[in-house]
Specification:
5-stranded mixed beta sheet, Nucleotidyltransferase, domain 5, alpha/beta, single chain, 284 residues
């Protein structure tokens, strides 16, 4: 059975606490994360992160099925379940030009048509944008079966929603970057408007610096003045952090919002590891 890469869990979670809680499950091609947030006292009860290695012999859907079936906590009733797809085959479309008729054509044009996946669409709250994205039908069917009352979101949509709720009071241009083991999700806000939401693969710190500097160049953003908001799997003393400090002057490691209770269990790991997903669990 696949073990979590890291796990934070309050002991002795009661049925009453479960029924006061929102479960947020994030799936991407190489990771599975879930958080359980008690909405009554805004206390995180569980945070689990699994690093995945799908193969031709063992698909992502098969791997996730094993995790979900083996995790007893995921079988217990909760107040609400949110399922978040973090896949790059997504396009943000301004509301005035959005039409359902062109959704598949847009995704096929931007991301290719070799994958005949399921096309989903959602309006992003607080932004005049729709998110059109493609996911695996097998994966969607598994999650529908495992979480029968779940509501579905794309990661980019909740990233934008949580930015508006928690991070937009600072009016400076912002690059918010969430790191995973092999990729990063970058959100660029310039003059209060979305200019980019994109997933970048990387192998080392120089790849990361190249992508972010290229974003600044292409979008006309000053690397000295932009607020670089960093979260996810990055250590403050790592080579990656050192590389970022070579080029950016305004680097801020994302913190847990004051509305969320920081428990003793959460303090066991750097808070920026899971600050982003906890903010999503609050605002979703």
């Amino acid at each position: 059975m696949l073990k979590p890469a890291f796990q934070i869990e309050v002991t002795g979670i009661t049925d009453d606490e479960m029924l006061q809680s929102r479960l947020l499950v994030e799936v991407n091609p190489n990771a599975f994360t879930y958080v359980l947030l008690n909405q009554r006292n805004m206390s995180p009860l569980v945070v689990k992160y699994f690093q995945l290695e799908p193969s031709k012999e063992h698909s992502l859907t098969d791997t996730l099925r094993e995790i979900v079936e083996a995790d007893e906590l995921l079988k217990r009733p909760v107040k609400e379940t949110l399922l978040v797809y973090n896949f790059p085959e997504s396009s943000l479309i301004p509301e005035p030009v959005f039409t359902m008729d062109t959704n598949r054509e847009i995704i096929d044009t931007l991301h290719g048509n070799l994958q005949k996946g399921l096309i989903l669409t959602e309006k992003i709250p607080w932004w005049e944008l729709f998110n059109v994205y493609r996911i695996s039908p097998d994966l969607h069917q598994l999650l529908q079966h495992s979480f029968t009352a779940g509501k579905y979101w794309h990661y980019y949509s909740l990233l934008l929603k949580s930015y508006k709720m928690f991070d937009s009071t600072d009016k400076r241009d912002c690059m918010k970057v969430i790191f995973y083991a092999d990729k990063m999700v970058a959100l660029v806000i310039r003059e209060g408007k979305v200019h980019l939401v994109q997933t970048f693969q990387y192998q080392d710190s120089k790849d990361v610096a190249y992508h972010l500097l290229n974003c600044c160049h292409q979008l006309g953003i000053s690397q000295e003045e932009v607020r670089l908001l960093v979260g996810g799997l990055i250590d403050r003393q790592s080579a990656l952090s050192t590389e970022l400090h070579k080029y950016f002057l305004q680097i801020h490691f994302e913190d847990i919002d004051e509305s969320i209770k920081v428990t003793d269990e959460l303090k066991e790991l750097p808070l920026h590891y899971f600050s982003s997903i906890l903010k999503m669990a609050v605002c979703a």
